[in-house]
User: Fold these one by one.
Assistant:
Number 1:
Amino acid sequence: MDLFLQRLFDGLTNGSAYALIAVALVLIFKATTLVNFAQGEQAMLGAFIVLQLWNWGVPMWVAVLVGMLISGILAAGLERTFIRRFDPADHLPLVIITLGLFLVLNAVAAIVWRYDPLAFPQLFPHGSAITIGNARLSWYSIFAFWKLYSCPLATACTSQPNKNRSLVPSSFIKSGIK
């Protein structure tokens, strides 16, 4: 029974992480009508920037904020420099550009940080948040599951026409998620 519960917790954690990635891809596609194949590499580059800042002694949460800022500026620069130049109605050049950006960002990360696995520091407290028998549910799992069912739903509903906004609590709309 413990093994079953542990596998259930692991499955919920992995499923939540994959669902969050899918929600990000869908939101970008709905906003731009473009499948951005470089989106994962842009997130990977942001994670490496956070790790590098942390290795230089910057506190973790400051490194996360700075990494998000740098990653956002980089993504905006790539969009303005490469993607915006092409006609959005013609999808083939845009797909080729995003695939090229995928390869370039991957190669840059390989040159700077090599292919060796790197350990990322703990963002949440050590130990398990919930223990049932020998099955443990980590703080990361709880965070991923919470994010999966809170923010994407609000973002998706508020990005739709006004009739769907009534489904979302007003606190999300007031917070600027529209």
Number 2:
Amino acid sequence: MSRINYWRFERPLKLWSLSIMLLLSVFILLNSPTSSAHQFSTAHAKLEPNGENQYQGYLALSLQDIQQALSIDPNNDGKLLWQEVINSMPNIEGYLTNNLTIWHKPLNPQDTAVTCQINWSKAPKLSELYGETLLQIPLTAVCPEQEAAVDQLSLQYSAFFDILNDHKLLLTWSFNEGETYFIVDNAKQITSLPFVTSSVLDTIHFYLYQGVIHIWFGLDHVLFVFALILPFAWLRFRQGRYSGTKSLALKDLLVLITSFTLAHSITLTLTALNVLSIPSQWAEIGIAISVAFTAINIITHWVKRLGIITFLFGLLHGMGFAGALSELGLSKTYKISSIVAFNLGVEIGQVAIIFLLYPLLTRLRKTQVLQYRLVPTLAVLIAIMGGYWIVERL
């Protein structure tokens, strides 16, 4: 009986296969995200009551976003000076006034809503918030007195959405020593700020959802998980190593994923609690290396037992997750609950990805032609993407 040689392709890839791989590689590189798969255009805001019918807080914005919207660098030399920012404040404040509306929502829908006046009277400053340097602009909102009963405060924010597709506002509403968190991701969204103290369940729901969303939109994490489980589509992989067996054991796959989960849970928690800290750039480079190495290893088999290397790479990914969590900010009232909920959300998103891909792995395993052409093609494309991120993040 002839024996399949599992250590190399059964037949060489034809010219058309190589052409497809090259075209797909070029397409991915031309349409790839920016160097960090986690850095989106993000603004931050905080608002809290400050006496009757008055509110105070701030907007914290990226200078890069402001430059893109308003061109506040007059000589276009790429070096934004603080004096140039100060000189541009009237334009910045005018832009924000036109794109931020706050009003009291009446309890009776038939009553007229009253719009609050927004003031930018205090001086701005540069602040280190959520892991990046932002222009923090203090604001106050004064709402006229009204006879109608007020149900809640409403807010509509529309800045930057017309020029930045990935822009979002992370809003913290403080009330009675409790904090509620909101995300504004489109210009038409109206956010309702209730006059009640947030509960731990509200906090858990927010961070759980954000954990799921983060891994689904974190392309480097998704590709790493895909590269990690792709070997299970090959006949020669079982029990965490290349062996030549024909069985596809879900439990073996789950062992690797559990190793990855345990590792990134450790570093996510330690980093979020400020026990562990490394420059975010190095963590992002390490994540990119993990993507490229894991993909290349599908073809080269440098490492046959993936449990240990998966755990080590998981430590790096945990730091990446922690960076996203720091961008959101931790609940002061429910700090541990925030970390646990975000981590659990990441796990839910990760498991969803695996179970969506598992039928594909099973299908590939049943078709030898697909195995020996599609699997290495996918591995090469993932490796190219990982290599691209390495160069971009250096």
Number 3:
Amino acid sequence: MDRTKIEPLILPLVDALNGTGLVETCSSCQAHFDGEDPGLGYGGEHANVGFNRRDGVEEPELTKLFVRIFNELQYRDHDECGTDFNIYKEFLRTLDDDGNCTIEEVYWFRVWPLSAVEAAAEKREAVAATLGLLVEIVQKLRRVDG
């Protein structure tokens, strides 16, 4: 992933995730509100980071990281941030020129503002607060495991 193309609000989370040694990020968006055009072809009112497992990393290692992140969010009372946070896995299918199908697994962190009626600035602030909290958590877990 070209670091010069990563938006500044999401960059610390991209760096923290890559720093775990478990994943390699492949896509990110810091969220766009109130007519901001992210050039993505969809509303973009959520922040996300897409990533793949690094070679040699088994899925149970990622699951352990995800559980620890959710537990830490609960401990820190993430609900007060005004956002919803999800982690999920997506299967993407691509066809090469010969018609051969390849399936790629992509994991996603997504942060949405809970209120659809808040002003753009309030949504942006809520997403930024959750992203900052996620960075702290991932960095803390990396130090504990490292």
Number 4:
Amino acid sequence: MKTKVKKNVSETSLIVKAIQKNDFLSRLDDEQITMMVERLVAIDFKPGNDVIKEGTEGDSMYIVAAGELLVSQADCNLRTLTCGDVFGELAILYNCKRTATVKAKTVVRLWFMERQMYRTIMTNKSKKKLYTLNLPTCTLLALNDSQLSKIIDSMEEVKYQNNDVIVREGAEGNTFYIILKGEVYCVTVVCSTISSTVLEEPDAPEKTSPSSSLRLKDLIPVLYQEGRYQGEPVTLGVGGFGRVELVTTLHHGKYFAMKRVSKKHIVAKRQEEHVLFEKRILKAIKSDFIVRLHSAFKDTRYIYMIMEFCVGGEIWTKLKEVGRFDEPIAVFCTACVVEAYAYLHKKGIMYRDLKPENLMLDAKGYVKLVDFGFAKELVHGDKTYSFCGTPEYMAPEIIQNQGHDFAADFWSLGILVYELLVGSPPFSSSEPAKIYPKILDGVLKFPPYMGEGAKSLISKLCRPRPGQRLGNTKNGIKDVRHHRWFSSMNWHKLRVGQVEAPTIRLIRKVSLATAGNFKASMDTDSCEPDAAEELLPSYP
């Protein structure tokens, strides 16, 4: 970690007040704020200089120490920033494009921090918590790293004033404490004689302390056709890294979804590892609740993944068509996701990108997970610190860079249940910067038509502390399956495909060439593949 930057009392006070009045940063604890104050660096700008420019990527946040700055968007002036204002804070979370230009009106001094430093501070705090719990005591020595991690996620930091009673003799005990700072007295009444023991911070010993083979050339695009009109290839979806087209084989007429990703785009976004990892995961997966990868190829311009074609289309499209799902449909869709999660988590794979857009319906109406661009392998008990996912579905610990594990998937499951039943996620805004504070506040507002079982499930899945979330406690995903909201679900029959899917009525009985279950999108980027090299063996 970088050397601390000295600041006088007034500078420190200004920075602390600026952090405390910011919607996002105000949720940092005292120690994190202190570490930020110590490592913010001063930078000066002359009048007319751009601090940040609209449309460019940034990795720093700023606090105004002196002077005035003008905020503009598309050459329209929005507001003026003055001493104590904070701006650019989204950039310390993830690599995003600036939504406005900030220009110095006067001589300006700013305090700034880069994303890597902020993440280092958050990561160090999380690791310090683990170290604190890893004490040489009889009780904790028997715990493995996974169990210690669960304890950390379940703990809350509380503060007591001098002479406050923490534990009263004779009262029922269901809580244990670890002293992080300060000292306490243990007072025991023995035959009307009071004896006391001091418990201190760690210095004195013996005292409680903190601690069939497919070839690319055999595949042809399915052209959009309505009546006598025949147009461009049918596009099933367009994402951040490529396009998914409907293709068929020359000989036996089977349909596939072909995901085509530009190599140039992959390299420009430094996503080589992500794309290869997605291919490797999908190659290994054999689950009826996850889309199947048949083959993968590459040529000089593109990488192609030949996937199972889900004729029913996206859950997101169906949801927008009807507004919100009836409870039986929501239960079925969620149950399919639970089975996909059970398979992935057992193999040590976090999904991390659950949302209706990534759920597809097959011909029977069963739901399948697609798009593994954010998936990650993780040893149970470990944590990862990458910032990824869809803002509305992110767990609090991801936003706060505290380190996350499989519990983050259960948070997003709760958000999915809410969106399926309501039609929109519980924490939403047109601006990501406004979504994150809502998630951290964690206030769930349920509409009057939502059943008590659904409310209970969502509340338990969306608990702020990962260790307390349904699915991440002692019995794991079994607790999710046994929740009363799923009382009508026969899990064994679901796994073997014997449950009649209520979603089947959402699937239109139309010609594939009209893309009736998909949002049609014309492709102006023609694809004439070069001689392609197969990336992996085809599945039979």
